[in-house]
């Protein structure tokens, strides 16, 4: 069965620190990968996505992610976080074009 | 105006009651999904639908049923609510074509079963 793992459940950083959140998936075929963000009290919004081409994907608000096929990983990064980045981050993989599998999420708390 | 709306936004009910959560979308998407979100578990798929006549079970469909009344409407029912169905419920839509198409989420319904 398909699975998505996010090993960092809760991350606390100070403003201007660098961020890297891990995401690993189990599917061995062609993959499309997504990162969603959920700000406090809000619904999930797309942060960035990968479906082909350059494995380094840039998203909104200065976020980027790198697809490393050999490691089955799609880690999310940001060079310098802001207080407004406080949110929960979810990695997701669509399976068979129909269902999406979501990771358990990583809560990021940025201290001002 | 929001593209994906959910009603109600909050609901408190008692064990054994029947509850319906509704989702409407104006995006014109064929595919609609219901998820529940629990702390530490992320989002888990309950049901999904490709069109009015095509409904499929997700990972955790037991205790739930759905109805796709029209392309734009997808309702989730709890026939007899139980406390462990207390969760945040999200509806999502997705365009038919393209594996790279993302899902668009509604604002969520917070359900508490006492």
**Helix and strand succession of chain B?**
EEEEEEEEEEE
Compute the CA-based radius of gyration of chain B: 13 Å
Question: Which regions of chain B are unreliable across 5 or more consecutive residues at pLDDT < 50?
Answer: none
* Beginning-to-end CA distance, first to last residue of chain B: 33 Å
> What is the number of helical segments of chain A per DSSP (H or I, 4+ residues)?
0
Count the E strands of chain A: 12
> What amount of the residues of chain B lies in strands?
over 45%
Describe the protein in words.
The complex is a heterodimer of chains A (112) and B (114). Chain A is 0% helix and 51% strand. By secondary structure, chain A is mostly beta strands. Chain B is mainly beta. Chain B is 0% helix and 58% strand. In chain B, strands 2, 4, 5, 6, 9, 10 and 11 form a seven-stranded mixed sheet that branches. In chain B, strands 1-3-8-7 form a four-stranded antiparallel sheet, with no helix packed on it. In chain B, a hairpin with a 2-residue loop joins strand 7 and strand 8 (73-78). Chain B is globular. Chains A and B meet through strand 6, strand 10 and strand 11 of A and strand 4 and strand 5 of B.
List keywords for this structure.
heterodimer, A: 112 residues, mainly beta, 6-stranded mixed β-sheet, 4-stranded antiparallel β-sheet, 12 strands, B: 114 residues, 7-stranded mixed β-sheet
Q: Outline of this structure?
A:
The complex is a heterodimer of chains A (112) and B (114). Helix content of chain A is 0%, strand content 51%. By secondary structure, chain A is mainly beta.
Per-chain topology:
The complex is a heterodimer of chains A (112) and B (114).
Chain A: E1 4-5, E2 10-14, E3 19-21, E4 24-25, E5 33-38, E6 45-50, E7 56-58, E8 64-68, E9 73-78, E10 87-95, E11 99-102, E12 106-111
Chain B: E1 4-7, E2 10-13, E3 19-25, E4 31-38, E5 42-51, E6 54-57, E7 64-70, E8 73-78, E9 87-94, E10 103-105, E11 109-113
Parallel strand pairs in B: 2-11
Antiparallel strand pairs in B: 1-3, 3-8, 4-5, 4-9, 5-6, 7-8, 9-10, 9-11
């Amino acid at each position: 069965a398909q699975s998505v793992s996010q090993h960092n459940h809760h991350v606390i950083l100070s403003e201007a620190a660098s961020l890297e959140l891990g995401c690993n998936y189990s599917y061995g075929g062609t993959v499309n990968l997504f990162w969603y963000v959920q700000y406090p009290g809000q619904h999930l919004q797309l942060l960035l996505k990968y479906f082909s081409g350059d494995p380094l994907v840039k998203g909104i608000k200065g976020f980027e992610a790198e697809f490393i096929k050999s490691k089955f990983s799609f880690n999310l990064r940001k060079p310098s976080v802001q207080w407004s980045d406080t949110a929960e981050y979810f990695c997701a993989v669509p399976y068979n074009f129909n269902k999406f599998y979501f990771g358990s999420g990583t809560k990021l708390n940025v201290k001002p | 105006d929001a593209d994906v709306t959910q009603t109600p936004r909050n609901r408190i009910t008692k064990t054994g009651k029947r509850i319906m959560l509704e989702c409407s979308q104006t995006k014109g998407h064929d595919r609609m999904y219901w998820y529940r979100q629990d702390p530490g578990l992320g989002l888990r798929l309950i049901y999904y639908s490709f069109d009015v006549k095509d409904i499929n079970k997700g990972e955790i469909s037991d205790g739930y049923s759905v109805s796709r009344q029209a392309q734009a409407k997808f309702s989730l029912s709890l026939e007899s609510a139980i406390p462990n169905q207390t969760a945040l419920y999200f509806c999502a839509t997705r365009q038919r074509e393209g594996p790279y198409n993302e899902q668009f989420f509604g604002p969520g319904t917070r359900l508490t079963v006492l």
